[in-house]
Amino acid sequence: MTTPAWPRLPRLETAVAPTLLLGWVLAQVAGAKGTPVRAYNLTWKSTNFKTILEWEPKPINYVYTVQISSALGDWKSVCFSITVTECDLTSEIARDVQQTYLAKVVSLLPNNTGFVEDAHYSNSPEFTPYLETKLGQPKIESFKKVGTKLNVTIHDTQTLARSNGTFLSLRDIFGKNLNYILYYWKASTTGKKTAMTDTNEFLIDVDKGEDYCFLVQAVIPSRKSNKKSPESITMCTRQEKGVLREMFFIVVPVILVIIIVIILSLLLHKCRKAKARQSGKESSPLNIA
Questions:
Q1: What percent of the chain lies above the pLDDT cut of 70?
Q2: What DSSP element (H or E) covers 142?
Q3: What's the angle, vertex CA 285, arms to CA 279 and CA 288, rounded to 5?
Q4: Cis peptide before 57 (omega within 30 of 0)
């Protein structure tokens, strides 16, 4: 009994590629004719509550208007009739970073002055800034090593989020939920130790007479995603010594040169005076008895 010869299915890449190409061609044709194309790939980009909505495609002969709403509010239009594919929504979410927001991107012809009921539009994913904004790179504000203690202070980053007209820092917003991890090690080794705090300051025990390097990282342990920030720039206690050492090698030679110049100037001045006196004696007439 012969096996039925089923038609061969096209390979996935050969089936998908023409479809994507056809969609791109149709979008270009629609744009060329002035027909708005529905936005796609709407993505929230947010760091330390600086929040931008991005999408595709770049419009051809049409414009975009963005609307945003919280779960408890009405739709508000922002970024009117733009030809770029991003909209800064920081000022809208900064009033209440714990709310959940939804945005829509409306595709319109340039001569449309308002929202049209049958306009093409796309909804963004929901976005809760408090849970989803990424933590920016922290900065070490100051550090000091005295004896067997190393004190490291982390800058409390200001954000554009605000309450009662006052801009808030990360610590103001997250409170004790915001932790910092300190990674530190002897400058002569690579073995790292860690310490954690729910404040902006570390005070740790170190070996006396040793130089240390360290960096910090912000973390919100209660989050499911975007828990950690990038690591800060590495700092070392020997940098202070290095600066003094560099100043020594610069200042001391300059002082020596100045002293030598002064000594040579004095010697030259004395020589000139001596020559002047000698010349005066030789030119004086002899006394005849």
A1: 78
A2: strand 140-146
A3: 145
A4: yes
State pTM to two decimals. 0.69
Residue count (the chain): 289
Residue 266's pLDDT is what? 84
CB 172 within 8 A of CB 179: no
- C-alpha span between 287 and 149 (Å, rounded): 86
What is the rounded distance in angstroms from the CA atom of residue 202 to the CA atom of residue 98?
29
Report how far residue 33's alpha carbon sits from residue 40's, in angstroms, rounded to the nearest whole number: 20
Contacts with 96 (C-beta within 8 Å, 6 or more apart), sequence order: 70
Among all chains, which residue has been given the structure tokens 């994913």? 125
Compute the distance between CA of residue 218 and CA of residue 174 in angstroms, rounded to an integer.
Answer: 11
What distance lies between CA 131 and its chain's CA centroid?
19
- Range list of H helices, 161-209: 170-174
